[in-house]
Specification:
This protein is mainly beta and 160 residues long. 12% of the residues lie in helices and 44% in strands. The protein has one helix at residues 2-21; strands at residues 29-34, 36-38, 46-49, 55-60, 65-70, 77-88, 93-103, 110-114, 128-141, 148-149, 156-157. This is Peptidase inhibitor family I36.
């Protein structure tokens, strides 16, 4: 009888520990978009190129736009990986959304993915705090080869 009570108590304690004390790691929502052809205008806050002359891209705060540029007539497409973090109520940065903006419009054209990120000044945001930042990475999508990607850019705070 004592063994059953101990086992039952242990199960309750374990259940409470799992419910209260052990949180799943933060995970960002992943999004994949196909860029529409465009001609970029206005100020770009954050731009980065691929490791080869293949292309690059930019982030524009006003309008929350990701731009992709195919800079080489090599037949390979270009894409931008992006990452959006939000501050939580403890003032810690947490992953919120990540994505890929792919452009198949060819050289020497530009593509655009229109996103809707939280503004840096919005309070509270989806994580319960105040703060939003974005970074990008440019890649060449090389068919049957490993893609060539830049390093991640620094972060840009997302305010209008």
């Amino acid at each position: 009888m004592r063994t059953r009570k101990r086992a039952g108590a242990a199960a309750i304690v374990l259940g409470l520990a799992l419910a209260l004390g052990i949180a799943a790691p933060a995970h960002a929502v992943e999004e994949y978009d196909r860029a529409d052809s465009t001609s970029p205008s206005g100020t770009m806050e954050l731009c980065i190129g691929t490791p080869t002359p293949g292309g690059g891209g930019c982030f524009k705060k006003y309008g929350d736009k990701i731009f992709v540029h195919d800079g080489e007539p090599d037949g390979w497409s270009v894409y931008i990986l992006w990452s959006n973090n939000l501050r939580d109520s403890n003032y810690e940065w947490q992953p919120y959304r990540t994505g890929r903006c792919e452009f198949y419009g060819g050289y020497p054209n530009w593509g655009e993915c229109n996103k809707d990120f939280y503004e840096h000044s919005t309070s509270p945001n989806a994580k319960g705090g105040k703060g939003s930042r974005v970074r990008i990475k440019a890649c060449v999508n090389r068919t049957n080869l490993t893609d060539l990607c830049s390093e991640w850019s620094g972060y840009a705070y997302n305010d209008k």
